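In response to the reviewer comment on reproducibility (Comment 2.3), we provide here a single inverse folding case reported in full, input and output, so that an independent group could reproduce the run without further information from us. The structure tokens appear first.
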């Protein structure tokens, strides 16, 4: 034997057996600690068999959980890991990220049981952490119950779940401990889930039934009372415990900021998430649809924390929308519009198959901003942790994701649905299972961190921060090595657990807090800690159970910038008492003990009176998508019209509010007290067949009083249909109206603008049309009508300018002639300059508006910069939308009769997280254009489509029409010299479409806007995260003091006007209108 070779071999063996933590790459935020070094070699390995597999048990690959906590009170957090087909493991932290397996000290064998979630909590209040493990206890060959390991304070545990009344056996996911009644001990919410059967597809009233295995449970801690155990009080506290619950996620927090701990439960499938608001009387009220506009459709993980440092707690839930464009195109996604309607009729609220990021706006109002922040797609995701991972003073977002087998792959679903199951006898079930499971695709992907950049901007990172590909499930955080930053522990399937060491050390500072409530470091769940710096406030609430099936550290970590100093810290204890501490050191762990006596803080929510209901608009049922399956929005629900004018000549402005089909328009007469009285107008009741989408006052007969021109609309009828005819109502001077006998244009109307553009003393009209019914995307005819001074109008111009939503006459160039500004969908802000000779010239490009094609809604004119020229403030679709648009990356629509069947096909492409994809699914495209089935025979081939020209090998010149969207932000256009300078409205105004804008005041201007839009198809979803707000406008167009309008969260607004000096009237579609105080 060569001695030198042997010596080298020995050296290699020596170094391989004495590994360092990892091959450190200090450019990463995290580095994985090698299991040989850490001593943690746990792997949740799964092997399917005839009894347990993803076909029989859909949650087969949900994986295990993680709990981190200091079980021996030595200052180091220890690790508990759950397994599905193997024993759970408990590791003692020895320091320096080294651990010892002490699982034998648990005192029970769990070889045959299926563990899911795990929580660490001081269940018996003795100052030592206990461990509660949830189980799938009653399924097939599984026969077990949840386990409670009571800490014996000597390094060992006793399993005492039966003694404590917590030996539930069923389909448990996770337990959350907290003090719901402020009596000083920890109660327990037990989250359970159901198996998926056709029986569960039923209406939401079944929530009130009870299911002994799948229904959630609530246990009150009565250890120190005569019962001496936990007592099931589910029926008394107001939580649902039915078979509809597919509970996969739970956390607790003070959601409504009233000082009491509430509960968030995330449900899978068609059942909505539950938001249980603590009623302070040992009951909860489920308020999900009241607080949230929508929730994730397949909620799998949840966490709650302050993400924008406004001292309010925001909610983040996880779903399964892919972020790779090819996976996105071949995976199941949103419900069809038809299915959405059915679920809605069954009583279920709005759900979307994507992550939700509910920004807390105060006063129980939340806005889902996941689309705005582009945090909505992280693939099949499990655990979300909201924590400051880089110690910069802002909470980041950590997400685990991946599933070992992907049952939502559409080619797989197609394959499984075509199997002849009758050909498999009982004896061949194993062959069937194997065939079904083997056919499921696999995809290993990296976990994701969204680094908080401030101001609601997030940067998505994976490999660059040390994330590698995996099938990860439960995760938890703690400063495992006590170096001042947050480490991560991640439980994977068929792969060793990840212990990720945080490499932030020293780049920023940290403040770490342990709360000691009556000398107990673990009885402060629900406490809030507010940290005050010179120019910043931070808040965190102690709620260890979060993410998915996991429980994080009891240490509270605040990252602060290196040059920051702590002014003070206030603690709001779970019983509502408060204390303030000063002289808090940085970069070390501080224990804050509850002081006695102590002042209790009374939490008072801002008392805001309910807005006054004024009128109601009732939209008729329409199903545009049945006729035009490729459209992105419904154009049959555009009203109601609103006119504010003095119709009876008493110098008080009255109101005309239009109706929908089968609902008449209304006249409200104002009086000197600012009150309105409904006036009976018989002719309006006869015109029920019309949909009033816009209207204007006009002295049509030039007799000195104001008549009404009402624009009809709706996309359910074809052009020239009588039901699309506009109407003129003649006023007798006393607000009595009669219909003028004339046949007016019959188009799907969009807007009317009335003014005397030729200075002859007679009102002229612009009529903008919204669409050509049945041919979405094409530009209909719009008209400029010239008053002939004889009680009639002639068509001055007839042109296809776009899909018009609004128009205004304004003297842009100050030549004493009114010019015309027109906006709409798929068109730029368009400027027609009055040439002074009853002709107009399109000078859109001259005014710098060439690249402003958007989905514009409304125009307001006002000299906002006080330069003597009226500016334009225009509402757009906003940035909280799946569509993203820019000059270089527009949303595009290609229109042509591609299959020569006499019907135009609008094909839309948009940028999906960096890659262009078709807006319509393969199924919709195949239905609309059957020849595509031959070109793309399966979903995999369709998933390779990256542009319109992958679908059709034609030139753009052959299209009937091509349009694009390049700008989605609502904007101010400052009228400066010969151009319109573009300034986006602030961030809060971009969180939904803006439907109307009002500016009041002269010296101190206030900008009001109303938003939301509920008429997109379900693929885009309702956009109702911003009902409206107001800004004070300071010098140099600085906006501050943003305030949300006191309106119902999801109101589908259309118009806002002043009524009197102190009130605003907000008109909505298919809902009440409201009067609110300014």
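Designed residues, in position order:
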């Amino acid at each position: 034997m060569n001695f030198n070779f042997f010596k080298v071999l020995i050296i290699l063996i020596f170094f391989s057996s004495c590994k360092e933590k990892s091959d450190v790459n200090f450019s990463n935020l995290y580095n994985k600690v090698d299991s040989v070094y850490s001593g943690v070699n746990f792997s949740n390995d799964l092997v399917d068999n005839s009894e347990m597999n993803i076909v029989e048990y859909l949650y087969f690959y949900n994986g295990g959980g993680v709990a981190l906590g200091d079980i021996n009170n030595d200052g180091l957090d220890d690790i508990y890991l759950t397994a599905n087909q193997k024993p759970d493991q408990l590791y003692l932290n020895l320091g320096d990220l080294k651990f010892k397996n002490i699982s034998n000290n648990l005192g029970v064998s769990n070889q045959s049981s299926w563990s899911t979630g795990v929580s660490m909590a001081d269940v018996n209040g003795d100052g030592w952490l206990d461990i509660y493990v949830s189980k799938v206890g009653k399924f097939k060959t599984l026969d077990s119950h949840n386990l409670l390991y009571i800490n014996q304070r000597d390094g060992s545990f006793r399993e005492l779940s039966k003694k404590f009344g917590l030996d539930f056996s069923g389909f448990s996911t996770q337990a959350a401990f907290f003090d719901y009644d402020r009596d000083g001990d920890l109660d327990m919410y037990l989250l359970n889930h159901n198996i998926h059967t056709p029986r569960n597809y039923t209406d939401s009233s079944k929530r009130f039934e009870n299911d002994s295995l799948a229904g959630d449970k609530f246990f009150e801690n009565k250890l120190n009372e005569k019962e001496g155990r936990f007592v099931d009080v589910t029926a008394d506290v107001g939580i649902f415990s039915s078979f509809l619950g597919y509970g996969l996620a739970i956390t607790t927090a003070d959601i409504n900021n009233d000082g009491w701990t509430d509960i968030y439960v995330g449900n899978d499938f068609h059942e909505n998430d539950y938001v249980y608001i603590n009623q302070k009387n040992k009951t909860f009220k489920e308020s999900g649809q009241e607080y949230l506009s929508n929730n994730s459709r397949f909620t799998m993980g949840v966490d709650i924390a302050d993400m924008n440092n406004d001292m309010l707690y925001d909610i983040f839930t996880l779903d399964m929308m892919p972020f790779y464009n090819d996976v996105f195109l071949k995976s199941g996604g949103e419900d069809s519009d038809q299915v959405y309607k059915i679920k809605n009729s069954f009583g279920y609220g709005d759900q979307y198959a994507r992550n939700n990021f509910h920004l807390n706006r105060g006063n129980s109002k939340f806005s889902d901003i996941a689309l705005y922040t582009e945090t909505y797609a992280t693939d099949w995701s499990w655990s979300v942790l909201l924590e400051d991972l880089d110690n910069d003073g802002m909470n980041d977002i950590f997400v685990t994701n991946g599933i070992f087998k992907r049952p939502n792959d559409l080619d797989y679903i197609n394959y499984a649905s075509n199997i002849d199951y009758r050909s498999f006898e009982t004896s061949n079930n194993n062959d069937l299972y194997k065939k079904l499971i083997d056919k499921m695709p696999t995809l290993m992907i990296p976990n994701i961190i969204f680094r908080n950049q401030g101001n609601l901007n997030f940067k998505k990172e994976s490999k660059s921060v040390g994330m590698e590909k995996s099938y990860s499930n439960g995760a938890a955080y703690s400063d495992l090595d006590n170096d001042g930053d947050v480490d991560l522990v991640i439980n994977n399937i068929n792969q060793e657990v990840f212990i990720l060491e945080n490499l932030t050390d020293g780049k920023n500072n940290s403040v770490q807090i342990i709360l000691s409530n009556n000398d107990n470091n673990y009885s402060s769940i629900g406490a809030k800690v507010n940290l005050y710096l010179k120019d910043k406030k931070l808040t965190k609430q102690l709620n260890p159970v979060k993410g998915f099936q996991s429980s994080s550290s009891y240490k509270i970590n605040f990252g602060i910038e290196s040059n920051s100093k702590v002014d003070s810290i206030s603690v709001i204890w779970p019983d509502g008492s408060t204390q303030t501490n000063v002289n808090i050191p940085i970069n070390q762990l501080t224990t804050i003990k509850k002081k006695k006596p102590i002042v209790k803080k009374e939490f008072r929510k801002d008392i805001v009176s309910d807005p006054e209901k004024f009128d109601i608009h009732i939209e008729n049922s329409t199903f545009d998508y049945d006729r035009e399956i490729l459209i992105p929005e419904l154009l049959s629900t555009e009203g109601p019209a609103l006119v504010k004018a003095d119709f009876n000549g008493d110098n008080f402005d009255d109101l005309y509010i239009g109706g929908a089909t089968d609902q008449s328009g209304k006249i409200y007469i104002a009086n000197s007290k600012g009150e309105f009285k409904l006036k009976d107008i018989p002719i309006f009741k006869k015109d029920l067949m019309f949909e009033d989408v816009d209207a204007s006052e006009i002295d049509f007969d030039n007799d000195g009083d104001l008549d009404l021109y009402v624009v009809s609309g709706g996309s359910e009828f074809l052009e020239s249909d009588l039901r699309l005819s506009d109407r003129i109502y003649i006023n007798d001077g006393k607000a009595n109206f009669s219909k003028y006998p004339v046949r007016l244009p019959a188009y799907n109307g969009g807007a009317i603008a009335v003014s005397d553009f030729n200075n002859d003393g007679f009102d002229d009209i612009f009529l903008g049309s919204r669409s050509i019914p049945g041919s979405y995307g094409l530009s209909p005819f719009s008209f400029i009508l010239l008053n002939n001074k004889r009680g009639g109008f002639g068509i001055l111009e007839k042109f296809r300018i776009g899909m018009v939503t609004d128009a205004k006459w304004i003297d842009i160039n100050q030549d004493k002639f009114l010019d015309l500004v027109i906006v709409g969908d798929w068109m730029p802000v368009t400027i027609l300059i009055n040439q002074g000779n009853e002709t107009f010239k399109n000078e859109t490009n001259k005014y710098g508006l060439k690249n402003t094609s958007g989905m514009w809604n409304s125009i307001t004119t006002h000299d906002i910069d006080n330069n003597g020229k009226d500016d334009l403030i225009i509402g757009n679709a906003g940035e909280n939308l799946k569509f993203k648009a820019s000059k270089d990356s527009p949303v595009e629509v290609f229109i042509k009769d591609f299959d020569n069947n006499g019907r135009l096909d609008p094909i839309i492409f948009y940028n999906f997280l960096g890659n262009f994809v078709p807006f319509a699914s393969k199924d919709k495209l195949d239905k609309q254009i059957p020849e595509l089935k031959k070109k793309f025979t399966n979903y995999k081939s369709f998933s390779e489509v990256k542009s319109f020209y992958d679908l059709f090998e034609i030139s753009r010149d052959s299209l009937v029409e091509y349009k694009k969207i390049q700008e989605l932000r609502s904007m101010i256009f400052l009228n400066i010299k010969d151009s319109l300078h573009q300034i986006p409205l602030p961030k809060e105004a971009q969180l939904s479409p803006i439907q109307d804008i009002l500016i009041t005041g002269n010296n101190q201007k206030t900008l009001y806007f109303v938003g939301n839009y509920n008429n997109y198809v379900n693929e885009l979803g309702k956009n109702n995260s911003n009902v409206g707000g107001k800004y004070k406008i300071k010098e140099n167009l600085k906006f501050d003091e943003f305030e949300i309008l006191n309106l119902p969260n999801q109101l589908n607004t259309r118009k806002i006007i002043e009524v009197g000096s102190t009130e605003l009237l907000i008109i909505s579609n298919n809902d009440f209108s409201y009067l609110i105080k300014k």
